[in-house]
Amino acid sequence: MSENVFEHLKIEWPTRVDEQGNVIREGTIDGNYAVISMNRPDRLNALTEQTVSEISRALRIMETDASVRAVVLRGTKDFTKKPAFSAGADLAAAFSPGLKPNVTWHMSLAMRIRHREYDEIEQFSKPLIAAVDGFALGGGCELVLCCDIVIVSDRSKIGLPEVNRGIFPANGGITRMAARVGVNRALRMAMFGEPIDGQTAVDWGLASWVAPAGEEFEKLVHEKAKWFGEAATTALFVIKKCVKFGTRYEQLGLMMEQLGFGVNSGASDSKEGIMAFNRKVKCPKCGGKGKFEDGTKCDMCGGRRKIKDTPHYIGM
Fold it and tell me: Which pLDDT score, from 0 to 100, does residue 2 have?
């Protein structure tokens, strides 16, 4: 499957090497993660069925690509009107061929098709970060809710405004929003259609971090994505499944933790993490001397000359 045939997306990849260390794809990302940018700036990245389908298709490619250990989903940086993650569904776009808006069960089928894509995005096995700079409204907000970690800029507006058009957020927005921020806040957002700003999104638990738009926001997104790209892949996979799906029924979540621990114990990252905990290396700050040239004790190793090693995870 081609990595590059996307009309509504821009994909940025990390460098990929084979088992012999030969570069087989020259990437542009500094880290073991990829970036999916919705690239319809003239429409504020409004979502059509094609856009959402392309996102899920891109994630399917990345799911089995060992060089990609996390993914950032965002709007294009090169906006032409206003900054936007996605301003929501493109209401001028047509439904799938054969589906007629005036036939009620056709519209239920159309939403089933859309749910299939959103569910697949939510179930992506690797960490998925929503980097929200600007508008994340309607279907765009529902995409955010499918992601694991949400980072917002201070100029972001996040909301479910569909009620102002006589419709409602049916791409999973009502249910997922209630799970994220609680029933009362979800009702307020969906029934009044009023957006919240980035800081409120953090305060309500919808987002994890807020940063000033521009360089600080971009730096934070890169920092968190790169951290995932160097972390223990299997453990992150199990954590994601237990938190996002196990919490829907507590006993199931506890069982998932037990089974997940067995899965994780066989992973190379698990073995490396434990070995690194017991492994000592020469202190890099004092060069293994325990003190500096002026005779003062090294503040990193405390004079012990060695420190615990940092684990080096290899991912899939």
Answer: 46
